[in-house]
Design brief:
The complex is a heterodimer of chains A (about 700) and B (about 325). Chain A has about 700 residues and is mainly beta. Chain A folds into two domains: about 650 residues, TonB-dependent receptor, beta-barrel domain (Maltoporin, Chain A), CATH 2.40.170.20; about 40 residues, no CATH class. In chain A, about 10% of the residues lie in helices and about 60% in strands. The two termini of chain A are about 50 Å apart. In chain B, helix 1 crosses helix 2. Chain B is elongated and about 60 Å long. Classes of the chains: A mainly beta (about 700), B alpha/beta (about 325). Chains A and B meet through helix 2 of A and helix 3, helix 5, helix 8, helix 9 and helix 10 of B.
């Protein structure tokens, strides 16, 4: 489908909505202001329900990781950042490939959490996950991260099945001048970035460029592994406010990431891969009156991944030596006795045996080949306040997604789908102590129309203590890859191996979640505590079923994997986070999660059904303690300790529990009008530990980080 | 009675008044109440709510309790504006309208009744009564918006070295410019103000304004103006480490250093005192519009730390502000 196909109905819908809402604006003119103007809300967090909401009134648990916290923690990448958040598993699949999930099993490609950058989904349908290297932004571009702990499908749709993350970047008006940053350190880390903020005419803009280089995890006993990275990225964002009612924002970005890709347990199989992406995003916000706001958001994401692993002549893959291959291909056309011989050896028919002989000397390759995905998305949202106690948001959206895969000896596909969505959420302050939240997302997908509702009752016990009882149901449509995968090995038109195929009857995954939460807020000392007790059942989990390969496709492997709705996961447990600013110079953040997982998965159906559990695929405990202390005007120190219990990684290997201690010493300085900071960061002070695979040995890492801003 | 005394004592402490005065006032009230009861027939008050909101409901309940405490025979009825039965209200009853729409309805449907309007802004009150010049001697209001003088004093208290104060004025608040200039001059400050209307680019106006000032004062106006100014002023001021003073709790929560506001408890307290006077003496001085006598201070200690503004505690700042305001009043 061409992108143009979605334009007409979408524009018609938008026109109708604007016409409808224009009436609101026409009635809004007064020459005075009232108590509603005076008491009206000033923007705060909006990622939970799509409208601005105080955390204690929101229908889900929220963690806000702000810029200051990121800087204090010494985080060098997204894995480090999400270790600050309860309930998250955050890990290095390879040094520069990250797996980040909320209440999910430790997969190579965690697929049940939505990640957005300024409201733009960066979930990649090719891999059914987020490719953190090609977001097109630097950590320094982040203002804060809004993390919804618990299903947010009701607000953000399918991909936010278990939770959602919105990375909010710095607005151009928040910075000015030129900022330079550099990080040097272990693993041959050489990172540099710059950002520049200024104004052209009436438009504020911010431009950012970044470069990252490192060599990845250290060599293993078998030798060095190709685990490094060379990443370039850049983005430009701009804000234009032509008048008091309208705000236009544009964001463009590009990233190119060359990195090692491999299985930590097979160091010899690492191969270079290249990922690139670009995006264009535009949003227009219009305040219709004090009670109504309209937002139109349009964006396009392009993502491309390339990975070819040369395997040499095809005969080597069949276990033949050069002499045998030469013998079989010596005479052209191939004599019938040779065909019969190959036929007898492989079980292939004569014509297939002939094709096989013809392919013996071909230089073949493996890898995922050349994959591309595109996403066009448009959303119109209306936020409203009906009465001082009733407000909400509703909206419509349309998305076009496509992906293609091309490999001369592997997976080839060209798929596209359209999705439409309708959502509505409201917050009703029934009394001074009781607030009810309700909302739902209805999505039209290729597996049918999915409805994901969520309700909560928020109770203010007093101005400091709050309770929340929540219930949510989520539905997750399979990703384009999950629904269309057909990973094969073929040469000369012959399929010699089937690696993974999708079940043609694949359906949505389903979630039912109950939660009870307690929040405590105090102003002096500044302290907030957030406890969440959860019970989440996921049914029809999409997972691999192993089944025998049907002859004649069994030259390489005796089994294939089929994506099916064959799993059941049940998570129950508790998690909490505590932020305490004990004094002007001391900050403490503590979090802990205890998760009990009960699961079943149909591993294979033949010859007899085999059901196994995945209970050990997620860490039972994880915890973090960050202490930041300002010593004086210039010096500050921080210490972050993170603990994770041992687990058996899905797609990885068993790793033992570990405790990692990071420390940071920072020095702030100013020269003339310029302000800067130099930091020494030490990660994992202590003995090595393994990430995702025993081969991924995390040694002590030292980094020197410098930053200076010229206003 | 014990509770009432405790409350009165606590309030008096917060206002810096002596316990002796409170005691005298209490005795006087009791005496007047007894006298009043002998003079008046049972007081009948209709409280009209603009809507059911925590603010309005809380205020209505507090007033009801207060009137009952003063005059056990009083009959107080609370009704939602849209459910009001006009025929059931005689013209001798006192109407207490809570919120603008209740006030609007009371003025329109019950022009002959005496009216106390609560939770209204000065701007809305003047607008509503401009069309009804008659019976102004039977109208009273307690405004919700705090006087500008208090913001000015708070600003100098939080940033004593301040020289330049900036503000943005909208379609309604622009009328306060002369008053602001006068107040600024009184406090030896230079005021830089920009008038911003619907067609103005807020960032273009606000950026130079905030960049050249030591503190930004948000003046309340219409909702659209307030939201836009808050959004951009907070970004710009935080970048320049310039504090913002706001006028609502949500302003402080969003990143203002402090806000001065009238809470439902503040309105309740002043309205309760007004009703006491009404029940007991009904003097002519009651029938006028009043500035809010009490106020609530909301401080954002996180912002204070980020801006290196030393604040010991919210209570300490509150007490300093009360003292400064009292001192300024002293001739």
């Amino acid at each position: 489908m061409q992108p143009g196909r979605l334009k007409l109905p979408l524009l018609q819908g938008l026109s109708a909505c604007f016409a409808l809402l224009a009436g609101i604006q026409a009635n809004a003119e007064n020459v005075f202001f009232t108590e509603s103007d005076l008491l009206g809300d000033i923007p705060s967090v909006s990622a939970v329900s799509g409208f601005e909401q105080r955390l204690e009134l929101a229908p889900a648990s929220v963690t806000i990781i702000d810029r200051e916290l990121i800087a204090m923690s010494g985080a060098q990448n997204f894995v480090d950042i999400f270790r600050l958040v309860p309930g998250f598993q955050s890990y290095h699949v390879n040094n520069n490939r990250y797996g980040i999930s909320y209440h999910g099993i430790g997969r190579e490609f965690p697929n049940q959490m939505e990640v957005m950058v300024d409201g733009r989904s960066v979930y990649v349908s090719i891999f059914s996950t987020v490719n953190w290297g090609t977001l097109g932004i630097e950590l320094a571009d982040i203002d804060h991260i809004e993390i919804i702990r618990g299903s947010n499908a009701a607000a953000q749709g399918s991909n936010a099945f278990m939770g959602s993350v919105n990375i909010v970047t710095r607005k151009p008006v928040q910075d000015s001048g030129l900022t330079l940053r550099s990080t040097l350190g272990d693993l041959h880390t050489r990172n540099a970035s710059l950002s520049y903020s200024d104004r052209i005419g009436a438009m504020d803009y911010r431009a950012s460029l970044g470069y990252q280089h490192n060599n990845g995890f250290p060599a293993v006993p078998e030798g060095p592994i190709e685990d490094g990275r060379e990443l370039f990225n850049g983005n430009v964002s701009s804000t234009y406010t032509p008048n008091l009612r309208d705000t236009l924002q544009l964001h463009l970005g590009y990233a190119r990431d060359r990195l090692g890709w491999g299985d930590g347990s097979s160091p010899e199989d690492y191969s270079p891969s290249l990922f690139s992406s670009h995006f264009q995003s535009a949003s227009w916000t219009r305040s219709l009156d004090r009670n109504n706001e309209l937002e139109l958001r349009l964006y396009h994401n392009h993502f491309q991944a390339r990975n070819f692993v040369p395997l040499g002549p095809f005969y080597t893959q069949l276990g033949l030596d050069a002499a045998t291959a030469a013998f079989l291909t010596a005479v052209t056309p191939t004599p019938q006795p040779v065909i019969n011989l190959v036929s007898a050896m492989t079980g292939l028919g004569s014509s297939d045996a002939l094709a096989l002989i013809g392919a013996l000397n071909l230089e073949v390759s493996s890898g995922f080949g050349n994959m591309k995905s595109e996403r066009y998305d448009a959303e119109l949202k209306h936020s409203f306040t009906l009465t001082p106690t009733l407000r909400g948001a509703w909206g419509v959206g349309s998305r076009h997604e496509s992906f293609s895969a091309a490999h001369p000896y592997g997976f080839n596909a060209d798929v596209d789908e359209d999705y439409q969505r309708l959502f509505a959420h409201s917050e009703w302050q029934v009394t001074g102590w009781l607030t009810l939240n309700g909302g739902a997302m209805v999505e039209k997908t290729f597996v049918g129309t999915l409805t994901s509702p969520r309700v909560s009752a928020n109770i203010a016990l007093n101005p400091r203590h709050f309770l929340r009882f929540g219930y949510a149901r989520g539905n997750r449509a399979p990703s384009l890859l999950e629904a269309n995968e057909n990973s094969i090995a073929s040469v000369n038109g012959l399929i010699f191996d089937i690696l993974r195929r999708s079940d043609p009857n694949l359906q949505e995954e389903k979630l039912e979640s109950f939660e009870v939460a307690y929040l405590f807020r105090a102003a002096d000392p500044d302290l907030n505590f957030d406890l969440r007790l959860f019970d989440e059942k996921v049914t029809d989990v999409i997972d691999d079923l192993r089944e025998p390969n049907v002859p004649p496709t069994s030259l390489f492997d005796s089994e294939l994997r089929r994506f099916e709705n064959n799993g059941y996961w049940h998570f129950s447990g508790a998690e909490f986070q505590l932020n305490a600013r004990l004094s002007a110079s001391t900050f403490v953040r503590l979090h802990y999660t205890n998760t009990d997982m009960d699961s079943r998965q149909l591993r294979s159906r033949l010859p007899v059904p085999v059901v196994m559990d995945r209970d050990d695929r997620m860490a039972r405990h994880n915890a973090g303690l960050l202490i930041g202390q300002r010593l004086d005007e210039a010096w500050s120190v921080s210490l972050f300790t993170y603990y994770q219990s041992g687990l058996r990684w899905e797609d990885g290997k068993d790793t033992e529990s570990f405790t990692r201690v990071d420390a940071q010493l920072a020095y702030d300085f100013s020269v003339a009008n310029s302000a800067g900071r130099v930091k020494l960061v030490a990660q994992n002070i202590g003995s090595n530990y393994a990430e995702f695979s025993p081969q991924n040995q995390f040694e002590t890492r030292l980094f020197l980080v410098a930053e200076i801003t010229f206003p | 009675m014990t509770m009432a005394s405790r409350k009165a004592d606590a309030s008096a402490g917060r206002q810096g008044r002596s316990g002796l005065l409170s005691g005298l006032r209490y005795c006087l009230t009791v005496v007047l109440l007894l006298a009043g009861q002998s003079l008046h027939a049972a007081t009948r008050i209709d409280i009209i709510l603009s809507a059911h909101t925590p603010y309005y409901d809380e205020l209505a309940e507090a007033l009801k309790a207060r009137v009952s405490a003063q005059d056990p025979a009083a009959r107080v009825q609370v009704t939602l504006a849209r459910n009001l039965d006009a025929s059931a209200i005689s013209s001798d009853r006192l109407l207490v309208a809570i919120g603008t729409s209740a006030t609007e309805l009371a003025l329109r449907q019950f022009p002959d009744n005496r009216l106390l309007s609560l939770f209204v802004t000065e701007s809305a009150w003047l607008n509503m009564t401009a069309d009804q010049p008659v019976h102004l001697d039977q109208r009273a209001a307690i405004f919700i918006n705090q006087p500008l003088e208090r913001f000015m004093v708070l600003a100098t208290l939080l940033k004593p070295d301040m020289k330049i104060l900036s503000t943005a004025l909208g379609p309604v608040s622009r009328q306060h410019k002369p008053m602001l200039e006068k107040l600024a001059a009184h406090h030896n400050l230079t005021l830089v103000a920009e008038e911003i209307d619907e067609h103005t680019n807020p960032l273009v106006k606000l950026t130079p304004l905030i960049n050249r000032s030591d503190l930004f004062l948000a003046i309340p106006d219409q909702g659209i103006f307030n939201r836009a100014i808050a959004r951009w002023a907070l970004y710009l001021s935080y970048k320049r480490k310039i504090p913002v003073l706001g006028f609502s709790r949500s302003y402080t929560q969003a990143g203002a250093l402090a806000s001065l506001l009238t809470s439902p408890q503040d309105v309740s307290r002043q309205a309760g005192e007004w009703l006491e006077r009404y029940i007991n003496q009904d003097d002519e001085a009651l029938w006028q519009a009043f500035e809010p006598h009490y106020f609530t201070l909301e401080l954002n200690l996180y912002v204070a730390r980020a801006l290196d503004i030393p604040i010991t505690s919210e209570e300490a700042v509150y007490q300093q502000l009360v003292q400064r305001l009292d001192k300024d009043k002293t001739p």
